[in-house]
Please model this.
Amino acid sequence: MEVSTQEDPPLPMPSEEEPTPSSGSTRNGNSPPSRQVSNISLPNKKSGLFGTSSNMINSIVGAGIIGIPFALSKAGIVAGVLMFFLVAYLTDKSLRIIVELASFHPKLRNLGVLTYEDLARIPFGRFGAAYVLTVMFVLAYGAMVAYLLVIKDNVPAVLGLADAGTGSFLEAEVTMIVTSLIIILPLSMMRDMATLAKTSLLSVLADVFLTGFVIAYSPVKSTVSEAGGFGRVLKENWINRDVFIGLGIISFAMACQHSAFIVSNSLKDHNAERWATVTFRSVSAATFLCLLLGMTGYLGFLDETEGDILVNFDSDSIVANAGRVLLSITMFFTYPMEAFVARHVLVALFYNGDMDGVTIGPNGDVVPLPKVMGVLGRRHIITLVIYVATLIPALIVNDLGPVLSITGSLGASCIAYVASGALYLGINGEEFLEYCRNMLESRGYKVEKRQKPSEVELPVVGDATATMASPDSDNGTTDEIPLIPSGIKPFWWYLCLFPVWVFLASWGATGTRNFLRSMEGYTSDVDSHVDSANVIGPRKRDYYISMFLITFGILAAVVGVISNIYVEVRHIFYTPT
Model:
């Protein structure tokens, strides 16, 4: 994506009725977008494939990697590994889905959609934008708290102040405050994601060496031998009752969709192929590192595996402290990635996308707003507020495991799986409804003649018979929303939850059509060659992947949170004899 790097004056946030004209940014290396839907500040610096991939890997592999052994202890070896591969595939797929919808979909590719929440606003209105912003903040906030907890556990041990995971307030909490103020806060104050490319590379290298440390020094051989051999360990731990707690941690470790647009917008020469290269490289590298560290860490300590695997190693070991240094480097350099996301959410909610704090002077020129004490601008103040808000719980909470699991179960599941699947069905709602209509017709169901566009109803669950007034002919949409035959459907229709998918598609089709109708003079690429490299239309297999994403996400979120509550209550009221 080639975007003008000059600092244009901020645009007023477009309402759903009156989208805002583009600022002249270009999309996909072609002509300027017809509109710029998003008003978020664009990056002044960009990265190539290597730098962007480093940022994405760093966004994925944060505190989550250190909790993977604990995830396997909760889920079981076989179940945990299989879930990891499934989550890795869904992560790669959802990353492609959301960016392809925003940048390469024939209806939207010329709009200049630059954020996740504005993509959600198109089919689902204010509700969609609010949902995405909320779960983005939950995931980023939980991640930042987890990173500070890891620092609190490990940095005092490196400095020789206390054993890992222990220590007084002066030894642990004060050390965390001082080191984070010196390293984390200045990096979080940066404006553009591309600025973090070098620190992200350093963080990724630290993860690689950390994985090597756990492989080399985890007492796998002796622990497995004492447990009766690998076959016995595998038999007794192939799946455990806390499997959904493990899934929550795995989802947390791989979740990066909340950073997707920030990272994607920083990619030079943005196109579908280059973005797919970034996602494949990043997810593959993260999966490889996490599984290596997870398997060796878990097999080295089995049931005694802690939420932070390095707590299992001796605090007075030079080698173990070297591993803690590597982990601390990763935490110091990954926290700013999440701070960027949290800041993005607050800027979008409270400042209409204007991160820099500028206004238009009397002569029409861009004038920066006054800075607090002549130093702190809007960006700095928001970043400082976020830092303090994450520091407070990190001073109180000591157990990393529940933080990882609950954040993953709730935040990661909602934004990585549910949101991406719902957006695909919503934006491709008309095409999906037509597909369902044809599917029923081919199985002998009588398909009613389409109603005239003047008849308008709101869709209800299981009833996708709503029609919309015909939009202007130049916006590229069809004359009416396809109708689904009324009456009793076959058993598989209900078993596969098609009434729910039809409802989502109807809602999204209505919202998308209304949005496009409001774009006066806008022409979509619906009639373009959808198989071309940078125009990606709806695909049958992706309908079913989207259905699975939503189902999997809701199940993981609900059962994951319930499992965490049950375990915590069990620990309070049950004392082993």
Q: What stands out?
A: The chain is about 60% helix and 0% strand. The first strand starts at residue 358 and ends at 360. Strands lie at 358-360, 366-368. Confidence is low (pLDDT under 50) at residues 1-34, 451-478, 526-531.
